[in-house]
Specification:
By secondary structure, the chain is mainly α. The chain is built from 2 helices and no strands.
Length: 82
């Protein structure tokens, strides 16, 4: 992923807290609990229209080609998808 080989792991407590936060935010702001599919999860949106019309959960990786790389291959998405 983006020329990196090693990634930090995340403790279970962090996954649990993140899952709770996502549930809260989705409910509070009426955000569909839709994740980007695996083949798009680590890619920039293909167009401005795609970015503006996607309804669900994405990350800064989907908006920026450079810089933020903290959610990489070491992140276990299946632990937060319910």
């Amino acid at each position: 992923f983006r020329k990196y080989t090693y990634f930090a792991t995340f403790p279970e407590e962090q996954y649990n807290s993140l899952r709770e936060l996502i549930i809260y935010l989705c409910n509070r702001f009426h955000i569909p609990h839709e994740m980007l599919p695996d083949n798009k999860r680590y890619r920039i949106f293909s167009s401005k229209t795609e970015a503006q019309t996607f309804e669900g959960i994405c990350t800064h990786i989907n908006y920026r080609a450079h810089g933020k790389t903290d959610i990489g291959n070491g992140f276990s998405w299946e632990k937060i998808i319910y």
